[in-house]
C-alpha cells in the first residue's frame, strides 16, 4: 500500500494520506485515510477513485498474480546468480593457483634436471675413480 499526503485534514486534525489498496475487490483503487490508519487512527476514510468496473476487478488481480509469479522467478534467478558468482570466485582463485603452478613447472623441471645431471656426473666420477689405473 503506497501513500501520499492530501490537502484534507482527518478527524485528528492531521493531513489525510492517499493510499492504494490492492485487494481483489478494489485492486489499485486509491482512498483517503488517517495517517495512523494502519494502527487504527481516527477512522477517517473516503474513496479517492470511483468504484471499479467488474472487468477491472477480474483482470487486474489476474495480472497482479502473474506479476507476483514473475517477481518470484526473478528473485529465484537472482539468488541462483549470487550462488553462481560465489562459485565463480572460488574457481577463479583455484585457477589463479593452478596458473602459478604451471608457470613454476619449467623452473621446477630445470632444477630437477640439474640435480639429475649432477647425480649422473657424480656417479661417473666415482666409477672413474674406482677404476684402478693400470700402469705398466
Ligand atoms: Zn486521524
UniProtKB/TrEMBL annotation:
Domain GRF-type: 10-51
UniProtKB keywords: Coiled coil, Membrane, Metal-binding, Transmembrane, Transmembrane helix, Zinc, Zinc-finger
Classification via InterPro entries: Znf_GRF
The keyword Manganese is annotated on this UniProt entry: no
Domain of life: Eukaryota
Pfam family, one: Zn_ribbon_GRF
Tagged with keyword Acetylation: no
Residue runs in coiled coils: 67-101
Membrane-crossing residue ranges in chain numbering: 101-121
Protein name: GRF-type domain-containing protein
Organism: Rehmannia glutinosa
Amino acid at each position: 500500500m503506497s501513500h501520499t499526503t492530501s490537502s484534507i485534514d482527518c478527524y485528528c486534525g492531521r493531513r489525510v494520506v492517499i493510499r492504494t489498496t490492492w485487494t481483489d475487490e478494489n485492486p489499485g483503487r486509491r482512498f483517503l485515510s488517517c495517517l495512523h490508519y494502519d494502527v487504527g487512527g481516527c477512522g477517517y476514510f473516503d474513496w479517492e477513485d470511483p468504484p471499479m468496473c467488474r472487468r477491472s476487478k477480474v483482470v487486474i488481480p489476474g495480472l497482479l498474480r502473474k506479476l507476483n509469479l514473475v517477481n518470484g522467478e526473478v528473485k529465484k534467478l537472482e539468488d541462483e546468480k549470487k550462488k553462481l558468482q560465489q562459485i565463480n570466485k572460488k574457481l577463479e582463485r583455484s585457477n589463479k593457483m593452478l596458473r602459478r603452478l604451471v608457470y613454476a613447472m619449467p623452473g621446477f623441471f630445470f632444477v630437477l634436471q640439474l640435480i639429475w645431471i649432477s647425480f649422473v656426473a657424480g656417479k661417473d666420477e666415482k666409477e672413474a675413480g674406482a677404476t684402478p689405473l693400470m700402469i705398466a
